[in-house]
Design goal:
Elements lengths: L3 H12 L19 H4 L12 H14 L6 H11 L3 H15 L6 H8 L4 H12 L3 H13 L4 H20 L11 H8 L4 H17 L6 H14 L19 H9 L36 H6 L14 H12 L3 H8 L5 E2 L4 E2 L1
Antiparallel strand pairs: 1-2
Helix pairs in contact: 3-4, 4-5, 4-6, 7-8, 7-9, 8-12, 9-10, 9-11, 11-12
Length: 350
């Protein structure tokens, strides 16, 4: 916290220090120190203290002070301290005062730190598992009654998804001493790995949008509803809300042709052009570079099936059309990410 004038006054002493003096300058922002000072110092970059070591030290302090505690409660303090033992000791002192003559508990520490109960976050994940928006909104109402900080709540939610992913892919790496360990292992068996990856990505993206929501609660609810609206690739938007076992073979072909991307809505039916469609697919030699009318050309193609010839599958027919059109650029990307739904003599529906 020295000014530039103070550093300049100290500079001469740093250049020729007395033999019996060692200067130790500690800072969290070394870039704010003048280069004339940094160039005369040997720099040590101190790492954050591991959580396990911090828990051991906090437990030692609590034992010396004859304070009873739950070890997971000290773990909560260490996590919030983010590698700073000074901050952890300060939080431990507050926890001792908050507990009074009683033991330091997990719930007491989480209440002191303004964190929501982990059991409530588990219930939120269960609502997401059954994909019931009403249950999710009821859970959010309970958080609202707790006066929860939705930024902290979203961080807790993403942390829980991270632990679920570890439970799926590397179960032995998950801390078995966590109070919610049985629930995490049980939920990990019911979620699909790709679901958790999608939920995590939506949540991380929602962190940037949360400050711009009309209200924090609305922003958090929209993040949860967005997780329900989108889903991993593999289910065609045409079949949204339908029983796959009862779907027609034509619709099943669309499922296989669906591009690998999350989707929630289907494209509107294109309007047929008000002109006579061409008699056949134009050859690649006569096709012009893609322009704004390139997509109109795709929509107005006449079905390339001769009279009496059995029509091929929609996927093969659309692939034949793409090869003939020889599209380039953005139009080509749009066309190749479409699924052929219906092809008549007057219009093509994608």
């Amino acid at each position: 916290m020295l000014s530039n004038h103070s550093f300049n006054a100290l500079l001469k002493t740093l250049e020729e220090p007395p033999s019996h003096v060692k200067f130790l300058l500690a800072t969290t922002d070394p870039q704010k120190l003048p280069m004339t000072v940094l160039s005369r110092c040997l720099q040590f970059h101190l790492r954050s203290i591991p959580i396990s070591d911090m828990v051991m030290q906090l437990a030692h302090i609590a034992e010396q002070e004859s304070v009873s505690f739950e070890k997971p409660a000290l773990h909560e303090i260490a996590v919030v301290a983010q590698g700073s033992l000074r901050d952890a000791e300060s939080l431990l002192e507050q926890a001792i005062l908050y507990a009074g003559d009683q033991s330091i508990t997990v719930e007491g520490v989480r209440t002191l730190l303004g964190l929501v109960p982990r059991r409530a976050v588990i219930e939120l994940l269960k609502g997401l598992l059954v994909k019931d928006p009403l249950i999710l909104l009821e859970r959010v109402q309970s958080f609202h009654d707790m006066a929860a900080d939705y930024t902290v709540l979203l961080n807790e939610f993403l942390s829980m998804i991270h632990q679920l992913t570890i439970a799926q892919l590397a179960p032995r790496a998950l801390d078995a001493e966590l109070p919610e360990y049985p629930d995490l292992m049980n939920l990990a068996k019911q979620f699909l790995p790709e679901e958790l990856q999608l939920y995590y990505q939506i949540g991380v993206s929602g962190q940037k949008d949360l400050p711009y929501a009309p209200e924090p609660r609305i922003g958090f609810e929209m993040i949860l509803l967005r997780m329900l609206a989108f889903r991993p690739a593999g289910i065609s938007p045409v079949l949204q809300g339908l029983d796959l076992n009862e779907a027609k073979p034509k619709a099943q072909a669309q499922v296989q042709a669906t591009p690998a991307r999350p989707t929630a809505v289907s494209a509107p039916k294109p309007t047929a052009p008000a002109r006579t469609p061409p008699a056949s697919i134009p050859s690649s030699s006569s096709s012009s570079p893609a322009t704004d009318s390139g997509f109109q050309k795709v929509v107005s193609l006449k079905r390339p099936v001769k009279p009496g010839e059995a029509p091929s599958s929609n996927a093969a027919r659309w692939q034949q059309a793409l090869e003939a059109l020889n599209l380039v650029g953005l139009i080509n990307q749009v066309a190749r990410n479409c699924v052929l739904h219906e092809w008549t003599d007057t219009h093509v529906e994608l």
